[in-house]
Design goal:
single chain; about 30% helix; 5-oxoprolinase (ATP-hydrolyzing) activity; Hydantoinase_B; Oxoprolinase-like; 5-oxoprolinase; Hydantoinase_A
């Protein structure tokens, strides 16, 4: 049978609003041309399915003999292949519209998805809203596997395991059958350590299929890697989405003759690679749409500018903006990402999303312009759509003339036949401008509606620039060294503005920029990935080389076979192989994908180590000395280029490309001229319009061409604005290259709302980038993984200007630390000096929290400060972790440093630092810093973070001048002060001028607060002077921490996104009494005051202000260790209910927000078994709105460990509000096992005993023996109280029951 022409290869991006189709049409002579089509993704009045309708329209245009009316089956003779990216999975995840599913987990972990890493998403939100788990039902399997200690079997190349409890198949089958009979037909399975021992999971899969489940998602098949929480989440995502995707594909195929039989149908996955429709699974589909855009961004820019070009992708849509980073043809990938509140473990393109798009709603709030995060959506859409929508970024562009209604089709309004409505935009901006002018101080010039619209556009550009700065900074790159590749329907209107904000001078827009996701899908490779978990240590030995080669060879063959099986037309010679090892330094969690050069036959351990260390130093700024490098996973990727997308291999660069066009004379091919507002040019400017090729236009702009700004280039589905200072070049292929000259806004020292909004973003961005630098360059788990640190900038008086939202307990205290150092050194603080302090009397919180402070000089004077505070794993003292629960003096808690000149004249003072950190070891019964190398390295990272902050503020000063930057440091605090005063006015008017609250610590010490509010002035006095005296214990709370609690509470009550700074405290007077528990003498122990009393102070403030019921009031600090290692965690509990919301369960509350270690990571690094981590149901207080529940966390020890618990609310219950019930108090229980014969403990028998305690009401003694070793024979439960240090022996079980939150509002009488 002869081939039918034309042959059409179709690539489709099915987005949330629009579906884009790009087709390559090949005629009989082999000539190719491109065709495009854009249509609404949902338009049920005209077609049932957008992708198939787009194909029908392409065929009607290119192969008229194949034309069919809507509704008829589409012929396939001319279709060569179909490639598709879709947001179906993304939208289903966002809108929670997947299929009902079940999840099978190991017993003790039924709530692992709802607990997650225990952090709350927004630290200032009293109503904590965590993403709900996807499974309808969770089933606990009676089984347990543990990892064996290293070298126990002599096999270092794998994760060796032991079955502690065989799978109870009968019990599981009964549970699965009950779930199936309830209507659930899809199930996910994730058992502890199944990445290394998959037998139990596979057996569960067999049972589930025999019961009748039609979809079974095994975590060991999906992602066989260590990390229980993301692996369980990934499996649940797959079970939730895969059946939905399968139905979507089947529905799509139904629109074609013979259901597309014989036509290759492929989908782009989250990693940017293509796979067959039969292999398109839910967990790899979530970023299908954005992945196509990232690939398109990478490959089109690399083709234009060469393979070494660094690119930032800027995809601005209607609801949000996605940013990404690439280097040439290489796309940045990540192994896990949080998408719609759901953590997914899978190779995926690294995309950061900001809630600012064309449909983002504009608001005037707290004297600042605010863009988003709310969106107008597709309906009603922006105000200019004529359907009653709010003002949005799109409307601002209409107001400024950057969107011209006459160039858009008449598809708007209630009739869907009207043009964009500029009149309603002008009316709404006039109304908003009246509100803005009314709130501005009298005497200033009133703003015009156009100026207000322009201000919103600038703020939107700033909001979209922040994630780009953070994305590049986090990888150790500078944003201004990249090309900005712009795509998406709205991107061209903001390209110059975003580039200007970032200092980027090079912009690239592909000729099909509004179709770039579809173009990327067209250019994507077909891929198959295979991964294998490992714990091999990389070393130059034959043993390592042979083991690694065997693993890689196996994975390579698996990937190639899978690719050839799914695509029979391929032969092995067409397949390319990429081999990588995910490597990390031992003791860290950060793994980097390190490529193997060539084949496994050339595998060189030394080259791997060198390549890994180069990548690590690029990203983190240093390498860890004397640390082994461990293989987390082996990774093989089989790839083939179906499309033959040619790749540039020349030495092309952006500059050499642009040089071809700079000598051109400005083109005269304009088709129109309109007025567009550009503030940099003084207002309205006549702007030439160039037609770059619109489907509803007759004229075309022909390249190469040079277009000086200001200009408007109309493309196929996009509008590009070229600002007056920029020059655009249209290439011969029709792409647009823009060279910009950065323009710095002319800002005076008087407060202006636009400048205030811009500086709010700039200051916060600096604090965020300091945080990224600290996380990037630190080595400890506490800072790098748990994120227990904060970074901030301060004005010359030491007042907080901007603090990235890290750890609340650090917020107010760091300013006190900066001011103490400033006053102590005065003129002795020299340029190049960096100060260190952790002493409570010098603004510290507790001794493990070390603050590093740097002054920035200008013309010989200090003009601002930056500081970073991090929680260090150990600073010496009586117990490992420096958190002794029974300390009676500060000396017992470790090295107490009021001040140390850590850097003098730019030289790091390491010898004196080591001396002061080891000094506690000179006292009897104490130790110096037990992890001195980690501590020194992390302090160097804090110095580096501060230096980055200094560089960024100096850059700001260079742009705007010192007087302007310092003026806005003051203005930004004034704005926060005004917002705080409004809150206090509201509280005073609602509840009166005199309020009070008292609560007791577990030792009976009272925290008493009287609040006097002046509702007229919006001010308040918070008087804690009646609180009880300081104690001979560790719960004394430094006054700086009290200030942190107050500023945190005020910021929470503001309820909107204001910058957190010293202005929040300006209307508040805080009174404490020296010698009280809230103002202890400097010799007093304070370690628990920072982590426990701070929570009680917060509860008292909120209760006095009648804002929210008490939360768990504790951080549940647990440490354990020996001479070789130390571990520290804080454990979640219940949050308090509010007037309109329930409390959240198992979440970090108020003064902390640190993450908890993943269960599998915990068990792989420490000799413990996490037996149980669940919600403590019913522990939240009752009420109209109930309090959140606490948790149950049970740990069995396998080696002797000194263990300390420091907790509160074990005596006093968390109080309810307005008649709501109290939360249940916490409890700490130790089950110590006596041994009457022998000393060795059989772990399997110990596990049986633990299971008996956890899941049985039996209290009888039991006996288990193995050979001649008599194991555990008797269990003795013991309440160890809220604070204790105990020696846990092998087989001992520690159970921690954390408190619930209080309820709010009395239950109605029944």
């Amino acid at each position: 049978m002869s081939q039918v022409y034309p042959l059409i290869s179709i690539s489709i991006d099915r987005g949330g609003t629009f579906t884009d189709v790009v087709a390559t049409v090949e005629d009989r002579s082999g000539v190719h041309r491109m065709e495009t089509c854009k249509l609404l993704s949902v338009d049920p009045e005209h077609y049932p399915d957008a992708p198939s309708e787009g194909i029908r329209r392409i065929l009607a245009r290119c192969a008229p003999n194949s034309h069919t009316p809507p509704g008829a089956l589409i012929p396939t003779a001319h279709i060569k292949e179909i490639r598709m990216g879709t947001t179906v999975a993304t939208n289903a995840l966002l809108e929670r519209r997947g299929v009902p599913s079940a999840l099978v987990v190991s017993r003790g972990f039924r709530d692992i998805l709802s607990i997650g890493d225990q952090s709350r998403p927004h630290i200032f939100a009293l109503q904590i809203e965590k993403a709900k788990p996807l499974p309808t039902l969770v089933i606990e399997a009676r089984e347990r596997v543990r990892l064996l200690p290293p070298n126990s079997s002599g096999n270092e190349g794998s994760h060796d395991s032991e079955v502690l409890e065989p799978l109870d198949e009968l019990d599981l089958e009964a549970k699965l059958r009950k779930a199936f009979n309830s209507g659930i037909s899809s199930v996910a399975v994730c058992l502890m350590h199944s990445y290394t021992f998959s037998d139990h999971e596979r057996k569960v899969g067999e049972i589930a299929r025999s019961v009748g489940f039609t979809n079974v998602s095994l975590s060991t098949d999906l992602m066989p890697v260590m990390k229980y929480v993301p692996r369980a989440t990934t499996a649940s995502v797959d079970a939730y989405l895969t059946p939905l995707i399968a139905q979507y594909i089947a529905n799509f195929q139904m629109h074609f003759e013979r259901s597309l039989e014989g036509v290759p149908l492929m989908f782009v996955q989250s990693d940017g690679g293509l796979t067959s429709a039969s292999s398109f699974f839910g967990f790899k589909a979530v970023l299908s749409g954005p992945a196509g855009g990232v690939v398109g961004c990478s490959r089109t820019a690399a083709k234009e500018f060469g393979p070494d070009v660094q690119v930032v992708g800027f995809d601005m849509g209607g609801t949000s903006t996605d940013v990404s980073r690439c280097r040439g043809y290489e796309v940045d990938h990540t192994m896990q990402a949080n998408i719609a509140g759901t953590l997914i473990l899978s190779p995926q393109v690294e995309v950061h999303t900001v809630a600012a798009g064309g449909g983002s709603v504009l608001k005037w709030e707290n004297s600042m312009y605010v863009v988003g995060p709310e969106s107008a959506g597709a309906f009603p859409g922006p105000a200019c759509y004529g359907r009653g929508g709010p003002l949005t970024v799109t409307d601002a562009n209409v107001m400024l003339g950057r969107i011209q209604p006459k160039y858009f089709p008449s598809i708007f309004g209630k009739s869907a036949k009207e043009p964009l409505d500029k009149a309603v935009v002008e009316q709404k901006f006039a109304e908003l401008t009246d509100i803005v002018n009314a709130s501005l101080s009298s005497g200033g010039r009133s703003l015009t509606p156009v100026e207000v619209a322009f201000s919103f556009v600038v703020v939107a550009n700033e909001a979209m620039s922040r994630p780009i700065r953070n994305l590049t900074e986090a990888k150790g790159h500078r944003a201004d060294e990249h090309v900005l590749s712009v795509f998406g329907g709205a991107g061209g209107q903001h390209a110059c503005g975003v580039a200007n904000a970032l200092g980027i001078r090079r912009i690239f827009l592909h000729k099909l920029s509004s179709y770039l996701s579809a173009v990327g899908i067209q250019l994507s490779d077909v891929v198959e990935d295979r991964l294998q978990a490992s714990k091999l240590v990389v070393e130059p030995s034959e043993k390592f080389t042979n083991s690694a080669k065997a693993s890689l060879d196996f994975l390579q063959q698996e990937a190639v076979n899978a690719l050839l099986q799914k695509h029979p037309s391929l032969v092995a010679s067409q397949v390319a192989i990429e081999l990588k090892l995910n490597l990390r330094f031992e003791g860290t969690n950060t793994a980097l994908a390190t490529p193997v050069l060539g084949t496994t036959g050339n595998l060189s351990p030394l080259e791997l180590l060198a390549s890994f260390e180069r990548a690590y130093e690029q990203q983190f700024g240093f390498v860890l000395k004397n640390r082994r490098v461990v293989v987390d996973e082996f990774w093989a990727r089989a790839t083939t280029h179906f499309k033959g997308a040619e790749r540039a291999t020349s030495n092309k660069t952006f500059d050499t490309t642009v040089q071809q066009y700079t000598s051109l004379v400005a083109t005269t091919q304009c088709s129109d001229e309109v007025d567009v507002y550009f503030e940099s040019a003084g207002g309205w400017c006549p702007t030439k319009v160039y037609d770059g090729g619109r489907p509803f236009s007759t004229s075309q702009l022909v390249g190469p061409a040079k277009i000086p700004g200001p200009a408007m280039i109309l493309g196929d589905g996009s509008t590009v604005i070229v600002e007056p200072s920029a020059t655009a070049y249209v290439t011969a292929e029709g792409n647009v290259i823009i060279e910009t000259n950065r323009i710095i806004e002319n800002i005076g020292v008087e407060r202006q709302p636009l400048a205030l909004s811009v500086f709010a973003h700039r200051f916060m961005s600096i604090a965020e980038q300091m945080g990224y630098t600290l996380q990037r360059t630190s080595i400890s788990t506490n800072i790098k993984e748990r994120l227990d640190f904060s970074c901030a900038i301060f004005d010359p008086q030491g007042n907080l200007v901007a603090n990235a939202p890290h750890i609340p307990v650090h917020l107010g205290a760091m300013g006190a630390a900066v001011r103490w150092q400033r006053d102590f050194y005065n003129d002795e603080w020299k340029e190049g000096d960096v100060m260190l302090s952790n002493h409570p009397r010098a603004g510290g919180s507790h001794l493990p929290d070390i603050t590093v402070m740097t002054a920035c000089f200008h013309d010989g004077k200090i003009v601002f400060y930056v500081a970073s505070r991090g929680h260090h794993a150990d600073v010496g003292g009586t117990t490992p972790g420096s958190m002794p629960p029974f300390s009676r003096s500060l000396l017992e808690e470790g090295a107490a440093i009021k001040t140390l000149r850590l850097v003098r004249n730019g030289v790091f003072n390491e010898s004196e630092l080591r001396e002061v950190l080891m000094e506690p070891g000179e006292r009897e019964g104490m130790s110096g810093c037990r992890l001195i190398e980690d501590c020194v390295s992390d302090l160097k990272a804090q110095v580096a973070a501060n230096q980055r902050g200094v560089q960024l503020v100096r850059s700001l000063i260079a742009d705007y001048g010192l007087d302007v930057v310092q003026a806005y440091m003051t203005h930004i605090q004034s704005a926060a002060e005004e917002a705080s005063r409004e809150v206090l006015k509201t509280i005073g008017e609602k509840y009166g001028s005199e309020l009070s609250c008292e609560d007791l610590m577990d030792d009976g010490s009272a925290i008493r607060l009287r609040v006097s509010i002046n509702a007229t002035a919006g001010s308040a006095v918070l008087d804690f002077r009646e609180s009880d005296p300081q104690v001979l214990g560790s719960t004394n709370c430094p006054t700086a921490v009290v200030h942190s609690a107050v500023i945190y509470c005020i910021r929470c009550l503001v309820g909107s996104d204001i910058p957190l700074n010293q202005g929040c405290l300006a209307p508040v007077t805080i009174l404490v009494k020296d010698g009280s528990i809230l103002a202890p003498d400097e010799h007093c122990a304070v370690v628990a005051g920072n982590v426990l009393t701070s929570q009680r102070v917060t509860d008292v403030i909120f209760m006095a202000l009648k804002a929210v019921a008490c939360s768990q009031g504790c951080m549940n600090n647990l440490t354990f260790g020996d001479q070789k290692r130390a571990y520290y965690e804080t454990i979640c509990g219940g949050s308090g209910a509010g007037h309109t919301f329930d409390g959240a369960s198992c979440v970090q509350t108020h003064m902390t927000n640190t993450r908890i270690t993943d269960p599998e990571i915990l068990e792989s690094r420490y000799p413990v078994l996490l037996a149980e981590f669940e919600v403590r149901r019913g522990s939240g207080g009752s009420g109209e709105h109930h309090g959140g529940d606490g948790c149950k966390r049970s740990i069995m020890f396998l080696e002797p460990m000194t263990t300390s618990i420091s907790s509160e609310r074990r005596v006093m219950e968390p109080k309810g509000l307005h008649g709501g019930g109290n939360g249940t108090r916490g409890l700490n229980m130790m089950h110590h096992f006596s041994r009457t014969e022998g000393e060795q403990v059989v772990v399997k028998n110990a596990w049986n005993e633990a299971a008996d305690i956890l899941w049985s009401n039996s209290s009888s003694s039991s006996k288990h023996s193995s050979g001649n070793v008599l194991a555990i024979v008797r269990k003795h439960p013991m309440n160890i109280g809220g604070k204790n240090t105990v020696l846990m022996l092998p087989g001992d079980l520690l159970r921690i029951f954390t408190p619930g939150g209080g309820g709010c509002g009395a239950l109605p009488n029944v």
